[in-house]
Amino acid sequence: MVNRNLLLMRHAEADPAGADLFRRLTPKGERQAHAIGITLKHQNRMPEVIVAGHSARTQATANIVAKALDFPAEHLIILPEIYDAQTRTLLEIINATDDSFISLLIIGHNPTISNTVSYLSQAKITSLNPADVALLHADIERWAYLSMDNAVLDVVWEAENLRQELPE
């Protein structure tokens, strides 16, 4: 068995104005994304691949987190289907992940991110706030085997409770 780590993140705070697909992060959202990246780095929870939706806010969140992690750009994947995905679609993406990767970060939207955490862990997660990240693990040979029968919720990092400073 392989101990696989799944990080599910809601995009950081976005400006409520404008066409939904093109909404940008607020300055607070930029700080949130950076704080999460630094936290993942300090907690030694670096993903091997990051998958994000194609909306402006998920891409910006992914780019800021990746920069804070010194993450290789070739392992940052943008998938348009994450934008309006339901839990089933997100699970299909997770299950199709290359098994050479042990740790995966998906950045998407609510309610799907929160619903997926709740479904897999059977925890009562009503709604993750912007930039919150849930870490789940499962002892499984392949990503295709990930299910509610084997996923365990380890921690939820709440962006609001992290130090939020951008580097100079």
Describe this structure in words.
The longest helix is centred in the N-terminal third of the chain and has 16 residues, at 27-42. With 168 residues, the protein is an alpha/beta fold. It is built from 4 helices and 6 strands, in the order E-H-E-H-E-H-E-H-E-E. It has a 6-stranded mixed beta sheet with strand order 3-2-4-1-5-6, with helices on both faces. The radius of gyration is 15 Å and the shape is globular. It has helices at residues 27-42, 56-69, 87-95, 112-121, and strands spanning 3-10, 49-52, 76-78, 103-108, 133-139, 152-157. The model has no long low-confidence stretch (mean pLDDT 94). It has a single domain (3-12, 22-161), classed as Phosphoglycerate mutase-like (Rossmann fold), CATH 3.40.50.1240.
SS-based structural class?
Answer: alpha/beta
How much beta, percentage-wise? 15-25%
Judging by the overall fold, what is the CATH architecture? 3-Layer(aba) Sandwich
CATH class: Alpha Beta
Strands across the major sheet, in which order? 3-2-4-1-5-6
Order of helices and strands: EHEHEHEHEE
Summarize model confidence as the mean pLDDT: 94
CATH superfamily: Phosphoglycerate mutase-like
Q: Give the overall form.
A: globular
Distance between the termini: 43 Å
How many structural units, i.e. domains? Answer: 1
Q: How many strands, what sense, and barrel or not for the largest sheet?
A: 6 strands, mixed
Low-confidence stretches are none
Helix tally equals 4
Q: Please estimate the helix content.
A: 25-40%
- How many strands appear in the DSSP assignment? 6
